[in-house]
């Protein structure tokens, strides 16, 4: 298999590589931490802006949706036109959206500006991993990728902690200002340190595929988030799902027929690639959904401050970051399938523990769920990421990185949407079925908007409000438990699938050769000119 030539700088010195890694990891931390960083501010944001539960989901998911939907096109653009310019442009756009969001106080405006920052994040994230794979020699690449995985996971906790600290003295706009300042500082360092690499033989950017995949994801996420609020049979909800499915089908048909697909669907015939994507998607489906829900539980039910909630999540991040650094060695020792199975098993156990939380639970029970989740993420993510990246040739490393990132962000976006909707559905139904009689008109409807809203209503109503407040807490806990039981079931099924279908070490390379026979040459590392059909 010949390799497409790349235009890259001369071999970097060890000191320069360390500087590159530091800037790359800082860039990654900026965009990753922005997903959960606002979660600790949701109760205050709901009170200050009047956002209901659906709008709160959109404030989180607008960023994640734009982030996830544009990752694949961004990876392809970076391969063809240069990774450094894309990284710098992404950081600049992220900062612009963050600074603007700090200056508004309407939920719709916050949602729109979070989407702009999400577009910037999509330009940043795939370039970080592809810069590592194109700048580091093979002997150092595994450790560098392990550090990337650690930051990708622990960055979420960094976001929670910094947000909690900021909210001790400032209100929620300070979170946007802090993120914007970090992005600007990282941008300056990136201009000075990052080498510009691109693949001279990279195929053209498949704009049609990128548009169709983004629209497919947008339709499915929109329908999932709006379903509990509008109704699952509402015309808008059903139309969103139909549009998502139709665009997904069109993407598949287009990608199978075009000469240079952005992501060839036939890659999913590779066991390592397919199981890696499945594992990453499910892991972050559960992880992002868990963070979205458990932070509201800690603040609204256990009464934690934003800082206390962030500190409560820190042990999980420490375990995740610590084990991620050693995970490549563990995977080599016990094998990828076994490591993935153990990791997903630990995740399942942790989620089941969290599903037992009630209104009177102690932090020790929370901790008992968070620690195995952190360990499980570290063990399961490393073999999955390695499988995805190693499945594609050098000139597709930007796309490989983007596939890994897209699986992560699509999973996270859907996790927030689906698990948030399960919680929202259960919460609304629980209040509707059990609200005490004799409440003023509109009180029940107001309480159904969010748990924060129900607490505000309860404070105004006196004795009747106390009963409504208890019903709201019980409804939230019941919805929370259902969401986590759904998560645990999904994790268990995924673990069984990967243990049964994951590739053995000896079978991985022949599998690539077998799929090569049915793939376009550009997806196989051919050095033929892009766009020239095979004879």
Q: DSSP strand (E) fraction?
A: under 5%
What is the rounded Rg? Answer: 23 Å
Summed over residues and divided by their number, the pLDDT gives a mean of: 79
Q: Give the helices and strands as they follow along the chain.
A: EHHHHHHHHEHHHHHHHHHHH
Largest sheet composition: 2 strands, antiparallel
Tally of DSSP helical segments: 19
State the strand order across the main sheet: 1-2
What sort of overall outline do the alpha carbons produce when their principal axes are compared?
globular
Poorly predicted regions: 1-10, 506-535
What structural class results from the helix and strand content? mainly alpha
The tally of strands reads 2
For the termini, the CA-CA separation is 18 Å
Can you characterise this structure?
The chain is mainly α. It has 19 helices and two strands. Strands 1-2 form a two-stranded antiparallel sheet. α7 packs antiparallel against α14. The longest helix has 39 residues. The radius of gyration is 23 Å and the shape is globular. The N terminus and C terminus are likely disordered.
Write a concise keyword list for the protein shown above.
535 residues, mainly alpha, two-stranded antiparallel ribbon
Topology of this protein?
Layout: E1 6-7, H1 14-37, H2 42-49, H3 53-69, H4 71-81, H5 83-101, H6 107-135, H7 138-169, H8 173-193, E2 198-199, H9 207-230, H10 235-257, H11 271-301, H12 306-334, H13 336-354, H14 363-390, H15 397-434, H16 443-447, H17 451-461, H18 463-501, H19 505-516
Antiparallel strand pairs: 1-2
């Amino acid at each position: 298999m010949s390799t497409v030539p790349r235009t890259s700088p001369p071999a970097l010195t060890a000191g320069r590589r360390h500087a590159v890694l530091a800037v790359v990891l800082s860039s990654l931390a900026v965009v990753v931490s922005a997903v959960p960083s606002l979660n600790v501010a949701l109760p205050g944001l709901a009170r200050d802006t009047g956002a209901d539960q659906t709008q709160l989901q959109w404030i989180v998911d607008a960023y994640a949706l734009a982030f996830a939907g544009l990752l694949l096109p961004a990876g392809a653009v970076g391969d063809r036109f240069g990774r450094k310019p894309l990284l710098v442009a992404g950081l600049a756009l992220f900062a612009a959206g963050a600074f603007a969001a700090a200056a508004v106080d309407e939920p719709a405006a916050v949602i729109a500006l979070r989407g702009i920052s999400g577009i910037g994040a999509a330009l940043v994230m795939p370039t970080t991993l592809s810069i590592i794979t194109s700048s580091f020699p093979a002997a150092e690449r595994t450790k560098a990728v392990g550090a990337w995985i650690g930051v990708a996971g622990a960055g979420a906790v960094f976001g929670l902690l910094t947000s909690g600290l900021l909210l001790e003295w400032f209100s929620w706009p300070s979170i946007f200002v802090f993120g914007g300042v970090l992005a600007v500082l990282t941008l300056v360092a990136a201009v000075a340190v990052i080498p510009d690499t691109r693949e001279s033989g990279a195929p053209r950017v498949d704009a049609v595929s990128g548009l169709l995949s983004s629209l497919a994801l947008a339709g499915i996420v929109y329908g999932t988030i709006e379903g509990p609020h509008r109704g699952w049979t509402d015309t808008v909800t059903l139309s969103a799902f139909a549009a998502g499915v139709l665009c997904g089908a069109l993407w598949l048909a287009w990608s199978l027929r075009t000469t240079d697909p952005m992501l060839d669907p036939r890659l999913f015939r590779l066991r390592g690639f397919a199981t890696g994507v499945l594992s990453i998607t499910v892991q972050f489906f559960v992880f992002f959904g868990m963070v979205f829900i458990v932070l509201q539980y800690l603040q609204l039910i256990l009464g934690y401050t934003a800082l206390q909630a962030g500190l409560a999540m820190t042990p999980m991040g420490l375990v995740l970051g610590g084990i991620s650094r050693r995970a490549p060695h563990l995977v080599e020792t016990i094998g990828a399938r076994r490591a993935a199975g153990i990791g997903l098993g630990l995740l399942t156990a942790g989620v089941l523990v969290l599903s037992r939380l009630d209104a009177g639970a102690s932090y020790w029970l929370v901790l008992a769920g968070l620690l195995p989740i952190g360990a499980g993420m570290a063990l399961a993510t490393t073999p999955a990421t390695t499988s995805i990246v190693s499945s594609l040739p050098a000139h597709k490393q930007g796309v490989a990185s983007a596939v890994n990132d897209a699986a992560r962000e699509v999973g996270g976006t859907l996790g927030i949407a689906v698990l948030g909707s399960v919680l929202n559905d259960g919460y609304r139904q629980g209040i509707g079925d059990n609200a005490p009689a004799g409440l003023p008109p509109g009180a029940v409807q107001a309480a159904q908007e969010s748990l924060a809203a129900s607490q505000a209503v309860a404070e105004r109503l006196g004795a009747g409000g106390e009963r409504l407040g208890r019903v709201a807490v019980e409804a939230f806990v019941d919805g929370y438990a259902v969401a986590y039981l759904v998560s645990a079931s999904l994790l268990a099924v995924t673990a069984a699938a990967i243990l049964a279908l994951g590739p053995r070490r000896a079978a991985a390379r022949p599998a690539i050769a077998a799929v090569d026979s049915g793939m376009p040459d550009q997806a196989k590392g051919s050095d033929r000119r892009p766009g020239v059909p095979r004879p």
